[in-house]
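Q: I'm writing a short explainer about 4-hydroxy-tetrahydrodipicolinate reductase for a general audience and would like to include a description of its predicted shape. Could you first generate the structure from this sequence?
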Amino acid sequence: MNNVKIVVAGPRGNMGREAVKMVSGTESFELVAVVDSKHEGMSLSEIEGFHGIDVPVYTNIQTCFEELDVDVLIDLTAPAFGRKHMEIAFANGVRPVVGTTGFSEADIAELRNMAEQKELGAIIAPNFAIGAILMMKFSQMAAKYLPDVEIIEQHHDRKLDAPSGTAVKTAQLIAEVRAEKAQGHPNEKEELKGARGADFEGMRIHSVRLPGLVAHQEVIFGGVGQTLTIRHDSIDRTSFMPGVKLAVESVLKIDTLVYGLEHIIE
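A: Of course. Here's the predicted structure. Afterward I'll give you a sentence or two in plain language.
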């Protein structure tokens, strides 16, 4: 079986660096290029931190796909580029695996339609950590019995979107089994605007942004005389790489867009 030919977009970011290492170290994968915002025409090995990884750097993703044989794009850029890169990938017969968040429901529906028209697989994952996926699944199970719930997500202070894609996805999964209901006192008043967090069908989502954090989330359920807390912590970005590897392997076997790794984890 031929190796999966992969391009990584966003190689100099924290996640991108780990993805380059993972792809380069996986026997069945082949890193053929990276897409970066600068360093056009250079070899990745010439950039600090990538010694020995001799693949070309492109600033134009279209040119990259035209010049090289590519199976999968791993996109770990910023929300402003995620959708654009997916559209270019579809146009060139490349299957995208995207870790960028910030997609609306309309975006996902439109991109799914593009994927199905091209008969290409695509995966958008708000979180690639297997433990985080299990946390979301367990939270959905718990919500059937403890419908009063709040979500606290904590990330590094360079994260652009709030709440996180993981928090929103968790709330969506809970909403599938929980009737919409307002929580807290019916006459409660925020003395400081935003104190109660974002409101998702009555659930409250709170975002923390601090240096030193990576990616953390706890889902707190309250019931009569009891509470239940389900928490996941990514203390290093290597925690995301098994999920990225699984997504690459899975995207080759589907011909639609899948939003969330929970749909490919049994």
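A: For your explainer, you could say: The CA atoms of residues 11 and 241 lie 14 Å apart.
Q: Perfect, that's easy to follow.
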